[in-house]
What we know:
The structure holds 2 protein chains of 2 kinds. By secondary structure, chain A is mostly helical. Helices cover 76% and strands 2% of the residues of chain A. Chain A has 2 domains: 32-91, no CATH class; 103-330, MetI-like (MetI-like fold, Orthogonal Bundle). In chain A, strands 1-2 form a two-stranded antiparallel sheet. Chain B is mainly α. Chain B has one domain: MetI-like fold (Orthogonal Bundle), CATH 1.10.3720. Chain B is built from 13 helices and 2 strands. In chain B, β1 (76-77) and β2 (83-84) form a beta hairpin. The longest helix of chain B has 37 residues, at 107-143. In chain B, 50% of the residues are buried. The chains are: A mainly alpha, B mainly alpha. At the A-B interface, α1, α6, α7, α8 and α10 of A face α1, α7, α8, α11 and α12 of B.
Amino acid sequence: MLFYFARRILAAIGVLLLISLFTYAIFFLLSPDPAVQICGKTCTPERIDQIRSQLGLDLPFWQQYWQFLSGIFTGRTYGEGAAAIQCAAPCLGFSFQTNEPVTDMITTRMPVSITVAVGAAVLWMLAGIGGGLLSAVKQGTGWDRGVMMTALAGISLPNYFVALLLQYVLVVQLRWLPFPQSVQFAEDPLLWFQSYLMPWLVLAFGYAAMYSRIVRTNVIDTLGQNFMRTARAKGLDAPLVLRRHALRPSLTPVVTLFGMDFAGLLGGALITETVFGLNGVGKLTADSIAKNDQPVIMGVTLLAAGLVVIANMLVDVAYTYLDPRVRVKSA
Amino acid sequence: MSTVPSELAVESEAKGALPTGGAPTPARRVIATLMKSPAVVVSVCIIVFIALLAVCAPLLAVITGWGPYDFDKSAIDSDLGGIPIGPLGGISAEHWLGVEPGNGRDILVRVAYGAQVSLTIALSATLVTMTLGVVLGMVAGFFGGLADQIISRVMDFLMAFPTLIFMIALLSALPAGNRPVLLVIVLSIFGWPYTARVIRGQTMTLRNSEFVEAARASGARPMRIAFREVLPNLRGTIIVLATLAVPGYIGTEAGLSFLGVGVMPPTPSWGQMISTAVGWYAVDPMFFLIPGTFLFLTVFSFTVLGDHLRTALDAGDAA
């Protein structure tokens, strides 16, 4: 067991290293010269050279990548002597646009993305599992068809379209909600809730649709298994059979998906944050891509990849507890 | 968002045994089953309609008299910031689905050209990912060993990527060039593992089936077994995967164009039209409703068709 976890962690580190290398290489090869970008309009060749050597852009690719990588763990110093700039331990460099440290830019925007992700996750897990279960138990009835049609619509509607529609109906036409604003919970709890409600609903709708389809298939599958007949034959009552025996094996695949999706959202809900003007990591990503702000793009890509890889690892661990079959295989 | 997060380890183990062996379901019976479902008939009609719209886009431009890039200043009210004149976003005999605010381009013609762009990109990406996925999945599943090791590791790696962010970053860093071709390439790079993983699993089951054993015993070479014995049995799975891949790519292309890294203006695309409509949604909701509805109907129809195909073909875990 211990050996298995050690191997998983090593594999995860390997994947992260490869992703960082790939991302770095692509921007190294494709981006226009960042020194020219930083230097701006009033630029002299000497100034460009100076910036290049300060940022280490005159070094060969491998040395630049190494500096970037070691900066994340040990911090980094740009330039020498009096002009040196310190960048503390998880150093992802400085934005080309605003000169802010990338690490700070991400950490200040994280709370918004976490709020978006957690709220949406609660909603979609409730709706997705509930809907799927209802659909499976009432298979073939109007309930089943209703839930599945809604789910089908949910996976076919692009979330920016749902976002616009919702905003048009609830804010412009019915005036039930104000325009979403960036407020802290402590400042105005009601406005805070109203501002996050639409992003939560939009995200949850899409995910719940997907999850309810999977839960339905799995529960129906499990209900047909032999051990379910045994459980019923033993005289257990229906709700208990459902809870104890049907739900657990049906939910294991949902755990995998949830890990990936939740981690993905923590890394920024790109489209939803942009449409609703929420200043989270997703919006930061969209903005930095629009401005070709290479260090920021590098930082958010690594963050997103890291979150997904860590989530996958946690899911694997959770699996060994949820599903005995996996435990046997890995031993 | 891109490809449907398919197939899970545990699920495949539970269901992987289902679709083995057996003769492939005769096509006629499958079609007969499908045609009994009204949902499928409606979906097929919508798909045919959208396809016709795409093919006939130039014809439509001639009939209506408006090209996809023609401005019509007389259809918008310049005093009101360019809002279309007339009800529902300027719907009139001249402009059947109204005009874009600001410049008065005909929405119907642009939606038709958008369908062309969208379908071309999605179908090309499906063709490329299916070819790659089937070939690599079969190689990995059939030959195993080192080939399987390498292909599986590459798949793991690509699927661990934060795909959307990476696609956006890559597309924004790439030079303008031929956007549709670039989109197909980027979609394919990240799309094939989802096909290959399912194909690999099924090939592994098929490899140990009796008819493959029989072929091997009668002296058939591995290549012959792979193409004449295994591949025909994967047909159902491939059809289902392809049908479900199309709406995935249509959605992703629209999403990327919405974010401004996909199809570049002035070339029309549904995602890009909706993105432009964001600035107008409060005053001219028809501008986002029309391309959005077309996008929704297309994705919806392909998904319904794929779902029913899967049930009819009983392709098991090809989700």
